[in-house]
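Here we describe the complex-level prediction in full. Unlike the single-chain runs in Section 2.1, the three entities below were treated as one system.
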Amino acid sequence: MQIWLSTLGFGLVDAAVLAVAAVGFTLQFGVTNYVNFAYGDLITFGAFMAFFAGGAPFGLPIWQSLMVAAVLTGALSFAVGRFVFTPFFQRRPQLLFALAMTFAASLILSSVWGAIWGGQYRELTYGGEQVHSLGPFVATTAELLFVVVALAALLGVHLLLSQTKLGRTMRAMSDDRNLAIACGLNIRRTTNLTWLITGLLAGTAGVIQAMQVHTFNTNIGSTYVFLIITAAVLGGIGRPYGAVIGATIIGVTSQLAVLVVGAALSPVVVFLILVFLMVARPTGIFGATGRTSTFGTA
Amino acid sequence: MAIAPALRVESVSCSYDGVQAVRNVTLEVPQGSFYGLIGPNGAGKSTLLDCISGVNVGYEGRVWLDGADVTRLPLQLMAERGLGRTFQTARVFRRMSVLSNLMVAARHPAGEALGAALLGTWKADEELNLARAWTILKFFDLTHIADNWGSELSGGQERLIELSRILMSHPRVVLLDEPFAGVSPVNRAKLANQLRQLSMDTGVTILMVEHRLEWVENLCETVFVMAEGKLIAQGSLAQLRSERAVIDSYLGSPTK
Amino acid sequence: MSALEFYIITVAIFGCLNGILALGFNMQFGQAGIVNLAFIVLVAVGAYATGIASVQPASGSFGGTGTYIGGFGWAFPWNMLFGIAVTVLFGLLLGGAALLRLRHDYLALCLFAIGVGLQVLVTDYLPLFNGSEGIVGMSAPGQDVLDPSVFQFVFLGISAAALVIVFVIFTRVTSSPLGRAMKAVRDDEEAAAANAKNPWRLKLTAFLLGSFAAGVGGSLQALYIGGWSVQGWSPTENLVLLAAVIVGGRGRNIGALVGSFIVLEGILEATRFLPSIGDPALLPNLQTIAIGLLVLAFLWWRPEGILPERKERFAKPAAISLTAALNGPGPVVAGETERTAEKL
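The structure predicted for the assembly as a whole is:
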C-alpha cells in the first residue's frame, strides 16, 4: 500500500511539471490555431539556459537560473512566433503548409541545439535531497519546490485567464476566432503575447523537468512532447484547465504504470490512452476548441 | 397507395453551439416539385439543411427520403441515397480542374476500386462519365473554363460548378443553399432558367434556400417560411404575402 | 571496382530506396492530404520486421547479446515479404484507428505523438527490438556469397526493380478515378462526402499504399545496411521525405522522385565530403538544418515545388443529350448512351 501511495506522490510531482508544459502547448494551439511541433525544442532550450546560467561563469543560484531560463525561452518563443511563424501563417494559411513549416522549424531548432551543445548529457540539480513525509506521501525538498513552482505558474495562468483583459481575449480567440476578430479584439498583440507567455511556461517546465531527471541532453524536449501532447489531447486541445486535468491523469498513470509493467513499458500505458482517445473521444474530456471539427461523427 | 414524398422531415429539432437553431420543424416536399425555404438571417435554414443532409447528425426527429427512413445518416450515406446539396459558401476542389471536379462526382465510377485502378479496367466507364460531365458543363455554359483550376474561379462560377458537380451523381433530391448568392445580376435570370429547366426535364426534386424573393417567387410553387428556428408558414409566395406572421417576421422588413 | 565506383553505386542504391519512401510519403501527404509526420514509423516497422525475420533467435549465434522478439532465420525474399506484410498490417491498424475520426491538424498532432511515443518505447523496452542498439546481422541476398562488387550491382538491380514496381503501381492509382477521388478528399473532405465519396476508405487506401512503399523501402534498407536501430527512424528521416515531396512537387509521383534525388544527392551526399570539424555529430545536424531551411524556403517562395501538380488530361468527350447526362437514378448503361449519341 505504502509503495502505491508514494508512487502516487511521485506521479503528482510529474503531473505538476507536465501540467505547466501542457498548459503552454494547449494555450498556444488554442489562441493561434496552429500546431507548434517546435514546442519541445523550447523545453530543451529552457533546460540548457538554466544549466548555463547556473554554471560558470554566471553561477546564478537556482531560482535566478530558473527565471533567466524562463524569460529567455519566452523571448525565443516570442521571436520565433512573431518573426517566423506569424508571417508564415499569413503568407501560407493552408493547414498543410503550416504543419510542414512548424515541423521543419522544430527540426531546425533541435539540430541547432545539437550542433551547439552536442549529444552529451548535462546535470542540473537543485540539492534538496532531504526527505519529508507528508501524510502518506514522501517527497524530497526539491520535489516539493518543483510542485510549488509549477503550482505558482499554473496559478499565474489562471489569474491571467480569469482576471485580465489579455486573458479574456485569449479565451475568446480560442473559443471562436472569427467572432473574436469580428468583435475587434486585438488579435495581433494577443497572438504575440501568447507566444511569449507559452514560451515562459515551456522554459519553466523545461528547467523543472531537467532537474527532475537530473541528467539530460538535447533530446529532453523532443521526447517529452509525447506526454505533453497526450495530456493536452486528453484535456481537450485548446483548453488550459483541461490540460491540467489531462496532465494529472497522465502523470499519475505513467508513474503507477511503472509499478505494474516496469519503467520501460510505462510509455505503453500513455500510448494506449492516446490511441483510445483517437478512436473513441478525439475531443478529449472537455471537448476541443477551434478548427478541430469532427464532421459527420458527432 | 399514394406516392411517398421525395423528402419528409418530421419534428426535427437541433441545437447549434448551445442555441436551439431548429425547433420542431415538420415539412414535406412532393416528388418532382421545386420548393423554396425562406426566412430572415439566423432563422435556422442552413442548420435545417445541415441536419437533413447529414452534415450535422446531432438532431432530434426523423427524416425520410423517397419513403425510406434516413434519420441521422451521415452526409456521405445521404449522398449515396440520392440527396445532393450545395453549401452556403460554394465548395470547389481547388487543386483540380473544373472538368475533374465534375468527373470526381460520378456515382461509383469503376476506377474507384483499387483493383480496377491497378488493372486499368475503367476506361469505358470513364468515357461515359466524361460525356456526361461535358454535356452538363455545356448546359451551364461553362465549357470555356473546363480546364481552369478550381482555385481560379469567380464566386458565381464556383456556385455553378458545385451545382453541376451535384448533378453528376444522379441526385433525386437537391438542396440548394442560396444558389443566387455571388452570381452576377446579369447571370441570375439565366441561372433561374437553367434551374427551371432542370426541374422540368429531369424530374429532380429541389428545395431551395434563397434570400432573393424575386427568384423564389419566380421558381418555387410552394414556399416554407422559417423564423427563429420554427416553421411559421407554408404556401405560395402570393398567399404568404398576406399572412400576418410572415409579414412581421420577414417580408415586412423593407430591406428584403 | 574502384572505391569511387563502389561509392556511386551505393549512392544509387540509397537513391532508389529513398525514392520509394518519398513516393509512399507523397501518396499520403500529397495525394490524400494526410499529414503523417510519423511516416518513418512505418518504414521502421518494415525494417524491424524484416530484421527479426532474417536473423537467428536472440542469444543464438551472436554470442547471446541482445534481446528481441522473433528471429526466424528466413532467407530472401521471405524476410522481405514478411516485412512488407507486417508494415501493411500495421498501417491498417494505425491508419484505420487514426483516420476514423481525426481530421486535419488533430490527425497530424496525434500521428506525430504516436511516432515520438513509439520511438521512446522501442528505445527503452529492450526485449522488443534490442533498444537503441537495434537488430544487426541480417544480410542482403547474395551478400555472403558474391564478390562485393558483383553484390553491389545485384542489390542495385533489386532496388531499381522495387522502385519501378512501386512507381508503376502508384502511377496507375494516381491517374485513375481512385486517385482523383483521393485528391477531392484532400481538397475538401466534406464536399467529397457530399458527392458520395467515402473519405475514410479513400484516405485509408492511400495510407495503405504509403505503408506498402514504406514496407518495401524499409525492408530493403535494413537488408542493405545489415542492421536497423532507433537512429534510422528519427524525425529527421521524416524531414528528408517531407523535403523531397515539398521540393519536388507534392501530389505528383515524378515530383517526389526528383525531390528525393535533389535532397539526397544535393544535400546529404554533397556535404558528406566536407572536412569534418570537431564533433562527428556536427555534420548531421548541419545537414538537417540545411534541409529544414530548404523546406521553409520552398514553402515561402514555391510551395508547389519544382514540378507542380498538373491538371488531368481528358480525351475529347462524346456528345450525348442532356437527358442522358442527367437522368438518374444510378449510372446509365453504356449502350443506351451510345444510341442516344447516335441519334443526335
